[in-house]
Amino acid sequence: MQRTAQLTADRTAPTLAHEAYDPLHARAVRVLEENWTGASSVPSRGLYPHQWSWDSAFIAIGLRHVSPLRAQTELETLLAAQWADGRIPHIVFSPSVPLDAYFPSPDFWRSATAGRAAGAPRTAQTSGIVQPPVHALAAWLVHRADPELSRARGFLSRLYPRLAAWHRYLLHRRDLGGGGLASVVHPWEQGMDNSPCWDAPLSRVRPAPARSFRRADLDHGAPEDRPTDLDYGRYVRLAAGYRDRGYADGEGEFAVEDPAFNALLIASEHALARIARELGATGTARHARAGRLTASLVERLWDPAAGAFLCRDVRAGELIPELGVSGLVPLLLPELPREVAAALVRTLGGPHFGLGGTTLLVPSYDLLGESFDPHRYWRGPAWFNTAWLVERGLRAHGELERADALRESFLGVAGSSGFAEYVDPYTGEACGALGFGWTAALTLDLLHDPKGAESAMDMSGTGGFKGGNRA
After folding, report:
1. pLDDT value for 219
2. Which domain of life is it from (predicted)?
């Protein structure tokens, strides 16, 4: 309780009347306090003992409601480990954590040596791959939580060049398909690591022998909830090959254009335009680029027959016929054609995802798919960060009743599951780690910003984020 009070007292944002009385708020704050290391947050104390890239972005979005200073520090710590080529690594390793606490560990990635040509930092050990670009979106929302503090600390002026370099890396080095979208070169980069959407492109990868690595994740989770040894062997082989090529892009056998990854890049381009305007520039070019990226997203990844966006296997030159929650995340973008947004809403509530009917939260994979498993990592369970993205997307398209219902379900399941990493989409049964950082953080965001006033995309006029859709 004392540690929770410490974080609450650290806040600089206005006090909300319900804070002292809402036990869910207090429990979520306690999780964030327990996961705070002094300069950043771990996703969970056991299974994930380092700093993860998109986790920190989501955590900052929630932290801004209780301590804008810590939210700013969260992003600053992550971006301090950025590579010279612009990439933000998916893990920043803590030197105080033993090597055997997590695999792949720093001695696998060898960032300082294998990543030298790409400009890996000398002062931090990191992985060499990336994660979805939520960072500019998070930075803008953190700034909006306390603009005076942000301006006094030069928060946006210091982050903007780093965020701009990050986007340049993705838009140039990672346009492996030549159609304007960013590609991921490893399933871990997309964040939905074990999705059946990766099965076909991964089948081309010869797995590393099981005896060549030790899976630390099985010390913290049931084997039936985690990726199989075969899949993990492919992940290891793919990562080792990327490392051995000096983290050079474009040569590996795995390259996929993913709809959620690119939708978050588009949302962050709009946020980066707002940051540019805050700093005295126009942001017009970035809004225009976001519009072009949205058009490319629809052109390359939209499948009208599926009623969803699909992943594109760049190496095979074809769409992957698997329905995952990634294909629903572009609902976050209000510039989508009206018929596309309407189809996504129908798919979300239809038999493949069952939201509002058979499921409590959005499953990570097609309920009717052959590979569906309600407990196995990203092959069916529901995750809270994707639920948050879909909830904000529903609001952006005026689907307020559906958004309200998803919000209520999110808050109920988050609390009852102990802020689980992920849950059974039918029952809400907890899976994976408990006390998970982004689950607690996004719970706070839905408690403090229930109508999405700070998160809804506004493409009218200058674009960016607005508060004009409060009910």
Report:
1. 55
2. Bacteria
Query: What confidence score (pLDDT) does residue 46 get?
Result: 85
Three-state SS at 303: strand
Residue 381 is predicted with a pLDDT of 97
319: CB partners within 8 A, 6+ apart: 301, 303, 310, 311, 312, 313
**Catalytic residue chosen out of the listed positions 421, 424, 445, 454:** 421
Q: What pLDDT is attached to residue 216? A: 58
d(CA 467, CA 454): 6
CA dist 135 and 348 (Å) reads 26
DSSP per residue, 381-428: -EEHHHHHHHHHHHHHTT-HHHHHHHHHHHHHHHHHTTS-SEE-TTT-
Q: Does 106 sit behind a cis peptide bond, omega within 30 degrees of 0 on the bond before it?
A: no
Give the mean pLDDT per block of 10 residues along the chain (471 residues). Answer: 46 42 91 97 93 98 97 98 98 94 92 97 97 98 97 98 98 97 97 93 88 60 68 91 96 96 98 96 93 97 98 97 98 95 98 98 98 93 98 96 97 98 97 96 95 56 34 26
Beta bridge partners of 256: 184, 313
Residue 193 appears among annotated catalytic residues: yes
Question: Which backbone phi and psi does 416 adopt, to 5 degrees?
Answer: -70, -25
186 touches 129 (CB < 8 A):
yes
Catalytic residue among 193, 199, 229, 373: 193
Specify burial of residue 23 (Cβ count, 10 A radius: 0-12, 13-18, 19+): exposed
Could you tell me where the DSSP H helices lie in 284-399? 284-301, 338-349, 384-396
